[in-house]
Amino acid sequence: MKRHHPAIRQTVRLLLMLIFLLSFSGSLARAAGSGASVWGADYFPNVPLVTQEGKTVRFFDDLIKGKVVAINFIYTSCPDACALETARLREVQKILGSRVGSDVFIYSITIDPEHDTPRVLRRYAEKFQVGPGWLFLTGKEADITLLRKKLGLYTEENRDEKLGEHSLSNIIGNQGTGQWIKGSPYENPYIMASKLGSWLHNWKLPPESKRSYADAPAVRTISKGEELFRSRCASCHTIGAEHSGGPQLRPIGPDLMGVTRKRDGKWLSRWLAEPDRMLQEKDPLALSLLAQFDYVPMPNLRLAPADIRDLFDFMEEESHRIEHHQHGGHQHGEHEHQHEDHRQ
User: Fold this and answer.
1) N or C: which terminus of the chain has fewer CB atoms within 10 Å of its end residue's CB?
2) Residue 249 falls in which region: left (phi positive, over 0), alpha (psi -120 to 50) or beta
3) How far apart are CA 171 and CA 39, in angstroms?
4) How far is Cα 82 from Cα 110, in angstroms, rounded to an integer?
5) What is the pTM of this model?
6) CA distance linking residue 154 with residue 18, whole number of Å
7) Is the dihedral of CA 199, 131, 176, 18 positive or negative?
8) DSSP alpha helices (H): ranges in the chain?
């Protein structure tokens, strides 16, 4: 039997490995390209839409082609969680900062084009202090329905839906790579911002600073009430923010520091359960809050009685915690001041 020289065998192995690597990299390139081609101009309709400023744009050519985007479907008179979803996207916009309008774009498309004219959408955007790179859009109802279908946010079950019954969901994606991810209006805004700013950009930007797992804080078990507050309330409300400098953006709803003591318990329980009905009934306090916060209605979050009790417990505990911290800090400050006076 003829034996091959070891050097020849090694050369053959290297050639085979090189052929495999070239073939594999070619497959990856084709896969990346296929994402853009499958989810490209042949798939997405290039329908015309009109922005809140009255400008006509094309869905594929002007809005999503080669871009990382977040898209949701809303209507401005929604009594449920449309406002919550918009408030959550406002948090995402704040986290991403100037990148929105640069390499990340947000689009909110109305499903009620008959009512939501560009002027109505512009006023709605102003209420949420929307910045550059976030467009509110209207168009023909048939075109909007087609977009919902193509984005996977519409099924045949939606055919006979009423406005108040529309399903709440959003989708984020990178048209250039063909990556698309459905989301929830209750998603953590920091996670959503990370998906838009890093994941869908294939981590093209280096992290702002190197961080070690050794410096990570301990994982804390949170209560049901805190989980509900974070996912349902925190986009519009704070607890104690007015005592810590306040948020940069105008608040969408009132600060809830000590609210369980300031408001009548029965009134507050009903307000959390059915705010839309109380507004319809023209409850004086409900109407006063609506006017105070630029007529952004409190959404009906379909909270069960147990959910409301859990929220009450958390809001009361968090208010006590902040008050105790403030009281302790104030006393500490007074003590330091007296000590400085004594030394002088």
Assistant:
1) N
2) beta
3) 14
4) 10
5) 0.77
6) 46
7) negative
8) 6-38, 82-96, 118-127, 141-150, 189-197, 224-228, 259-262, 265-273, 275-280, 284-292, 305-343
pLDDT tens for residues 228-271? Answer: 999 889 989 999 975 444 446 778 899 999 999 999 999 999 99
Q: Which CATH number fits domain 48-201: 3.40.50.261, 4.10.640.10, 2.120.10.70, 3.40.30.10?
A: 3.40.30.10
Distance CA 280, CA 293 (A): 17
**Domain range annotation of the chain:** 48-201, 224-243+250-339
CATH class, domain 224-243+250-339, is: mainly alpha
> Taking a C-beta distance cutoff of 8 angstroms, is the pair 93, 130 a contact?
yes
Domains 48-201 and 224-243+250-339 in one fold = no
| Other beta carbons within 10 Å of 286 | 21
pLDDT of residue 319: 95
